[in-house]
Input
Amino acid sequence: MHVPDSNRNPPGASPAARRLARKALAPIEHFLQIEASSGVVLLVMAVVALVWANSPWRDAYDALWHTPVGLRLGPWAFERDLHFWINDGLMTVFFFVVGLEIRREIYQGELSQARRAALPLVAALGGMLVPAALYLAFNAGHPSASGWGVPMATDIAFAIGVLALLGNRVSPAMRILLLALAVIDDVGAIGVIAVFYSSGLAPVGFLVVALGVAAIVTMQKLGVRNVAAYIAPSVVIWAGFYASGIHPTLAGVMVGLMTPVRAWFGVEGFLDQATASVEESRAKTNDGAQALLPHLDALNTARREAVSPLERLLHLLHSWVAYGIMPLFALANSGVEVGNASFDGDGLRVFLGIVVGLAVGKPLGILGLSWALAQAGLVALPTGVRWPHVGLVGMVAGIGFTMALFIAQLAFPAGPTLETAKLAILVGSALAALLAFVGARFVLKGPAPAVGAASDAEAESSTEH
Output
């Protein structure tokens, strides 16, 4: 039986064009395989936005994001500017991926057992409370106090990227601690947005949300596994949140948390179905291509259901979010006109509150509360992690950026205070990254052990699961 060579060109394709495409894409593919590349793309977009917003072409920057974009169906129309569709539309996909990651961690990751989740939970709590408290120390009693949620957030992409740039000196246990902490941090930020940065709640919106949720639950009970079928009820949930006064991006989190985490066929089921389909197809090779279609359909279903819908969606969307949506968000929101930022009165208080909250509050809260509860015997350090390592993780967690910019848009109206808050986020995040690199020179003396944290974690995982 002839097996097509995947290295050969498909019918109708130009060999020269495919060779040229492979040469052009090879460096890009290599770049995207680097763990820190997403953070690098974010940084580049932030710099581009900052330069563009302070250049002679600043009017074009503002005009671009105020370009009206809308949907129209007969007499009905829904039109908003491009900035809205990025912050309230595309960022819903970002929050959907966050919801998927939270769901996975709760099901089988670091948050699946109380003992394993204790330290990152405590660390994340300290890393949220202390920055907020420091911000309020500067701003309490002033209108600018509404921005207390801004320095609470950690940017996962940047934080993981900084750890990756530190190389093999970072142990797997440190990476796992940061990832679990950042996921819990996202949960806290989502809660803060839902409770404190939503206003004018309309009950009819919650009814629409309930209808969307009921549709998803019903489809899951009926065994609908095609993820495309869930787009329509997800849009209904988004519209319900928008109508209710709660930020619509939280619809992404809700749908992500409802996504199934168990595979239907699994690996063994896929292999069994694949073997059966191939054998049955081989027996009907003389019956023409039409006779093979049912077996190919069965094989395609088995391939799709070899992994859970959650894992399939994460695999599908992660690159789009990391290299498309988040950089676009950074480009649209990092363009601070420095001349419009204010350092008088509330402006100075906002600037100091955010910078100190991110660069000082995050490591102080993460290390301080973790150490205090460890002394009380309530939490324990993972194998291979020492207290200086926790402090270093706290410094890296001070990189706020994406989520901090997002909360700032909700906390402040357009104007000098918002511009000052954005500038403070950029400065505070950069300072946190710089402190992390300096701290790493003292904390990380050499390559992480080849065995130890990694092998212990694997052994523990195999025992528990």
